[in-house]
Amino acid sequence: MKKVACFGEVMMRLSTPGHQMFGQARQFNACYGGAEANVAISLATFGVPASFITRVPANDLGECVWQELRRYGVVTQGVYTGGDRLGLYFLESGAGFRSSKVIYDRSHSSFAELTLGMIDWEAHLAGHEWFHWSGISPAVSQSAAAVCLEGVKMAKKLGLQISCDLNYRSKLWQYTDSPEEIMTELLARTDVVLANPDDVWHYFGIKAEGYDIDDPAYNEAVLQLLVQKFPNIKTAVTTLRRTVNASHNTWAALMLQHDESLVSQTYDLNPIIDRVGGGDSFMAGLIYGLIKHSDDLQYALEFAVAASALKHSIEGDANLVKVADVAKLLEGGSVAARVSR
Amino acid sequence: MKKVACFGEVMMRLSTPGHQMFGQARQFNACYGGAEANVAISLATFGVPASFITRVPANDLGECVWQELRRYGVVTQGVYTGGDRLGLYFLESGAGFRSSKVIYDRSHSSFAELTLGMIDWEAHLAGHEWFHWSGISPAVSQSAAAVCLEGVKMAKKLGLQISCDLNYRSKLWQYTDSPEEIMTELLARTDVVLANPDDVWHYFGIKAEGYDIDDPAYNEAVLQLLVQKFPNIKTAVTTLRRTVNASHNTWAALMLQHDESLVSQTYDLNPIIDRVGGGDSFMAGLIYGLIKHSDDLQYALEFAVAASALKHSIEGDANLVKVADVAKLLEGGSVAARVSR
Amino acid sequence: MKKVACFGEVMMRLSTPGHQMFGQARQFNACYGGAEANVAISLATFGVPASFITRVPANDLGECVWQELRRYGVVTQGVYTGGDRLGLYFLESGAGFRSSKVIYDRSHSSFAELTLGMIDWEAHLAGHEWFHWSGISPAVSQSAAAVCLEGVKMAKKLGLQISCDLNYRSKLWQYTDSPEEIMTELLARTDVVLANPDDVWHYFGIKAEGYDIDDPAYNEAVLQLLVQKFPNIKTAVTTLRRTVNASHNTWAALMLQHDESLVSQTYDLNPIIDRVGGGDSFMAGLIYGLIKHSDDLQYALEFAVAASALKHSIEGDANLVKVADVAKLLEGGSVAARVSR
Amino acid sequence: MKKVACFGEVMMRLSTPGHQMFGQARQFNACYGGAEANVAISLATFGVPASFITRVPANDLGECVWQELRRYGVVTQGVYTGGDRLGLYFLESGAGFRSSKVIYDRSHSSFAELTLGMIDWEAHLAGHEWFHWSGISPAVSQSAAAVCLEGVKMAKKLGLQISCDLNYRSKLWQYTDSPEEIMTELLARTDVVLANPDDVWHYFGIKAEGYDIDDPAYNEAVLQLLVQKFPNIKTAVTTLRRTVNASHNTWAALMLQHDESLVSQTYDLNPIIDRVGGGDSFMAGLIYGLIKHSDDLQYALEFAVAASALKHSIEGDANLVKVADVAKLLEGGSVAARVSR
Amino acid sequence: MKKVACFGEVMMRLSTPGHQMFGQARQFNACYGGAEANVAISLATFGVPASFITRVPANDLGECVWQELRRYGVVTQGVYTGGDRLGLYFLESGAGFRSSKVIYDRSHSSFAELTLGMIDWEAHLAGHEWFHWSGISPAVSQSAAAVCLEGVKMAKKLGLQISCDLNYRSKLWQYTDSPEEIMTELLARTDVVLANPDDVWHYFGIKAEGYDIDDPAYNEAVLQLLVQKFPNIKTAVTTLRRTVNASHNTWAALMLQHDESLVSQTYDLNPIIDRVGGGDSFMAGLIYGLIKHSDDLQYALEFAVAASALKHSIEGDANLVKVADVAKLLEGGSVAARVSR
Amino acid sequence: MKKVACFGEVMMRLSTPGHQMFGQARQFNACYGGAEANVAISLATFGVPASFITRVPANDLGECVWQELRRYGVVTQGVYTGGDRLGLYFLESGAGFRSSKVIYDRSHSSFAELTLGMIDWEAHLAGHEWFHWSGISPAVSQSAAAVCLEGVKMAKKLGLQISCDLNYRSKLWQYTDSPEEIMTELLARTDVVLANPDDVWHYFGIKAEGYDIDDPAYNEAVLQLLVQKFPNIKTAVTTLRRTVNASHNTWAALMLQHDESLVSQTYDLNPIIDRVGGGDSFMAGLIYGLIKHSDDLQYALEFAVAASALKHSIEGDANLVKVADVAKLLEGGSVAARVSR
């Protein structure tokens, strides 16, 4: 089966229990995740051999990252040890009209202080057929951006498919005012891109006419402009999330491939148990779909949307459903939500 | 007041907290319940004298069953001690599009190993006017089925009203391929039956034309076929549950009696706190309604539906609302949901 | 900046976790609040200097009240120590069709046993420009009513703006059958009144034609009758809450000033995390709005409604959002509910 | 078997989790207990038929008392409903050198407002052979003291054995400066008394020479003086607790009967999980011992000490061990503390 | 490095939180363990390559076993899927004089229903140098005993060192009255045996003169008799546990090899956080010691005792300390218990 | 009353619940503390006016520091806002032979990035009579050391008493190999020093003959050498902690003043609930004692030791007992640990 390698930072996530605000919390729930690790864990849970490349400190918290990846069957040969600290993020989980809040505390992390040559990319990408990175890695530090590019180049050289989730985060990208140059180098070598219009705007200043982020046509137009700029992109995808409130969204996706545009069915997500990692679970579903159903892109897209619809019902960063769970939702619709007994 | 005896297995339920998946749980919430015990506890809470007949092991977990029944005022003279283990079931509580999951672990339980003659049925049914059983007891083992029939026969002999919730469970019925014979003997002696179309199909191969489980007319047609097969049934009832998702259902019921068909009002259940025991709480409300409001069947039906609508807001197997709470909902509608202070 | 003084009782609130019923609870969540303290805490969190006047017992529970007020920056020079016990209330948090329940246990509290002369009103109101009281204080005991009037008179004498939330509670007012006389004396000295039609009916026997509590026109008519009776009232306001179920309400408000009637936008509150303190958070938002946006009453009203819409997403009695959070909701609508990262 | 009736108040106990101080607690653990109810529950768990006489309010908290007593098999026909509130007490559980703290909040409770004639003593004591009361009931209010005496007189008239735990509590006895008169009337009709030297001093001003509460001889001397004053007392007992710190005590007892003095073995209690209810569990063990082993007073005494040694390892007010558990400790000593598997 | 294979059942352990009794528990803490898996996890945590051979059901609970083993780096190629249920055990954690209680619920488990030929022993033992089994496997069922012998024979054939923890459990061994025959066949092929005198007595009817389980000399005498019966045993070891109470034990060990007898230092374990798995952690430490320090048996023994002394401070079945933690205790004694910062 | 100002970093502390290891924790308990803030909170709780000088980031976590200090009545005018992050530390709470572990994550914190001139020392020290700093502040960064010296100089100029807890932490002091120079400048202006022999050795290379940290004489000798080096020191103190295991220490202190040496009584701390902050609580007790009982140094010392003995029974960084609690222990000894009711 195709083997997928993912590269990125794994952080400790400290989230307030229930819907407590930061100032109310006397405990924090701890889990370990990050955009790309969430993809790897979901893929492994789908039965796709997945390996992970990252760097963690040589302390008990760094070891928790090893344990968590191993637990889900992700191969950890590419996890390096060193540096000063594990990146953290604090999450206040919103509800109703009160949005969730994230406080990043990931500067100076072991991952952010990766430098060129630290990772034996050839060893870790050999035998793989797919490499996944996201826009978060080049955002955390200049050296991490360089290491990410190092990996993308080696993946290209070894002939892997390369996918990227643009994942623009305004609170990162502290070291430069112009991420465009960095992202251009990376994206010019990438085959499959998950890109929301706001990401495309922030990175490349690209927008289509008649800005309306909730309009599928607008989303499609932006993807077309992106593909024009990066003709190497074979598959461009965007998720369509409409926010009714923090507990209630609608969810679908649109895929552009060879001028063909596909739109998925729409899911009414209510209640949302945990919205963080929703896009990552979509990305994992998309990679799975493109690998296993390359002959039926509509199914691949529907799989990704259904998988990520299920993720919104799961606490924690990572999607823990299996292929059978996704298939059940695709076949049964809401009847799938009956008690299984 | 009419005294009601119920017969069935009481299990320890181990459910994941919040909406955790099985693989995420480090704790399980424990409570004690079962289809028929849920009926007995709800009746006792309504103020109807209720007694329970079952068998539990002679250990601390079996003792918890005694304590839990006593706590709600259920008479426990009919609880026998013996056998190897208390039946268990594990519950993963779903949300949104992710359904709840049940893992039964009830084979070889003290109840499943009941044998003929163990229960002094005459002693435990004397002085009662109603006997309730469900399709779960004959499903757990051949000997439990025989004991259930033993009880039904004695109840008939003593002149009790007999009610049954068909409760078909595909994960049970391991010892036989044809539950029809067993259920026919039992149902031929039963006066009040709660039967959903799928139950009727699985047990007796009966279905009406134009299968549509969400259509009241289809439900009514199935009940009519059932009553034709079992003319001894005086009252046949079905609940009408439409699943929007695991957290949101609609809920109503339909009753057939002497060719008269009654339909209740419909409740929009959102959010659902705990869906397990919803049918049991309806059954308890129905028995209460038929006993106390035998002259107003529409009210009896509405009572049962309102009582079970309230159950969906309560964590645990059993419905813990009082008659006054149900009456308040019947009178006030959604205004009843204002804070009471 | 204008300084606001509030007077009222602070209780320990003991609420069942999750949506447990009283009979299920093995733990209670404890927090400290009360209608007027909730106003003071919200104002302090908005950056308005707020001080509080109350009385608590000389034990560790009374001290928790000091700590909680101080924590949010409320000035506690006016907190007196003495008496026998801290008032309590128990809260069962409902869901769906099951309403929340309150059991008050506040008789004989240190606050209820306040007597004339105990409070040095002049000292505590000096330097302030606003005084807030609510209908709960005169309801708890005859002597508390007298002390409340003592405070209102001093506030009047010192030239403060005076506001009141009528807050009728049927379970209080045990010492008299006719609260009208007491409330008339108090209201005749009050400038800003938050009054729901049911409050007005219970206190003063006033109702308008065509009773319909969900109809803004009816609400406006009642306010007009109230202002006719109390021409000293400059601003009369009512909240418009429609209860779909205990987890889902709609929420808006209507303001009457100088024959001008303003209506706010309507919020769909779903899910409601904690409905208690919703009115208090509105009152705090209104005082803030009237102080800071006295030249734009529509904005003042919208601010109060948005602030209290956010409160419904927060567990505990008090609203803990900041002015910026409210402004973000006012500007962004549901988009404000996206994750902030 | 001998049936035992107990009379007293049942309170809700709200204790801080772990070893939190009051000011740290955000949750309180709730259970239901009281000196005499603890005796009744322990006796019922030993298999002795026990009934309870008390009064609780007609609300959901009062109902929890019913449920808790029933759960352990205590007969609740003597539980009356009425009055304003359930008595409460708050418990901060100490550790090491920090003592546990109790804040009583039981004034004006349903029990404290019992009045003469409310209880049908004859009905509730008929068929019983033993009546137990404690010094707490006459301490809570003058009318409760009168009702307690009413009960003691009826017990005497019906020929029951009467036992008392003196249980002096300095924070109660608010209504009188001289409990002596009241206690004298009660004790003059009592057969078995559990009395610590400090109790005897506070009630009757009796002390022996050379005050040393840790000295068995001093304890015996005080009991002799007590029996001289009340020659009706057949059995006088005292527990011998030496406090190393709040987590570590030693524990034994001394019994005086017909001039014979018996001393039990001493247990080293370390760690103490919950010290509250230690004396009550001794009292229950003593009643059990005197009923079942009246021919072997030393065994009766040892049973009571061993039972209460076990109680110190159990969270909550009541002792939940069985006769077999106590026997195992009596036979096995520390070997009894090995894992049972 | 030497690779160690372990064979045994992995169960879900459901333990009461804090020191709650079974009847008090509303939640159970869940973890996964078993005598032999505890050895494998501890070895893997020491850095010794460990693989595990067992059988779990094909459901979400079985999958938790896979995840837990993988998390600690145990190789899971030998985990088979099939059968009906995961074995369980319930644990009530004692304190003071109240012992911990275990309720086994492991009959009919996937492991108990293993049959000859199911396991490809050659594949799973190839490349290993050590095989570990315990007396629990042959105790759970006749077929499991046969499979265990199958494994031991293959290990012998492949030339592995074989170790065994006798682990007599009176609540198991239901299928036969004479475990001696079975254990004799197994032990006759075993090189390293952990055997307490009571185990030896129950299995083989062997005891030495002057029974005193706390006396090292008595323990040594029993080991000598055991080695006389099984001259193939190269190393016989016993732990010396003296039970002060359930929270306080002393702990040491004695090793017999080639007529040489070694005794370790004694540790005062107080408080004990979790006593379950104490012997397993000793076994893992012993295997580690014998592999890494075969030239210094005293150090090997001290390592095993120190490792297991640390285990008593860790909640859960398995010992999670590293070699460095053990070395620190061996070097520093109680000073090792200072805060590390 | 004398006003005390303290300067130092406040961190979020994230500790594992119960005695979980880092790898087991799924939640962390959060509180806020630091060596000097613990002193300020304890002083405020003793009724001594205390103010605090520090720097926190402008986010919700920084705000929690404000709230926590205010809650205990510490004056927060000296809390500055700015910088990137709140310092953190992770705490694994040990038990028995397993030591507690601390992982610092405080580099690059708002406090560590303080620079000269940021703090208006004159404003914050005016009106105070005592200034307290500790060896942790100069250890976190070079600029923090400079700011600390800036403060000490201003305190000297304004005539305040200056105290210091040497608090050597090997995991800090990353920026220099020779803390001696920095500490010499600071200590040369300090009047009261809490210094353990290991601190003195690490900072100044000073040790006395016959190293034995548990020997009071050795401790006294080291203090004498320290005072010889810094003749400005009026009072030198050391605590005497002997570690039996992580749950059991003994605790006393020794004071040197004008060649007079005083030794306190010794406390047997068992069990220890939370050992972190033990020294800080002693320091607060010492400042209190020196201020309030300057005429009775032995009492001052005993007060500090008793206060900190009580701290070991309290979870969290700060000592929350009152003067009356300490006095009760000083007067009553172990009897003080009886339940207060």
TrEMBL record, chains A, B, C, D, E, F:
The keyword Hydrolase does not apply. The keyword Kinase applies. InterPro entries: Carb_kinase_PfkB-like (IPR052700), PfkB_dom (IPR011611), Ribokinase-like (IPR029056). CDD domains: KdgK. Residues 1-316 form the Carbohydrate kinase PfkB domain. GO terms for molecular function: kinase activity. Belongs to the carbohydrate kinase PfkB family. This is Sugar kinase.
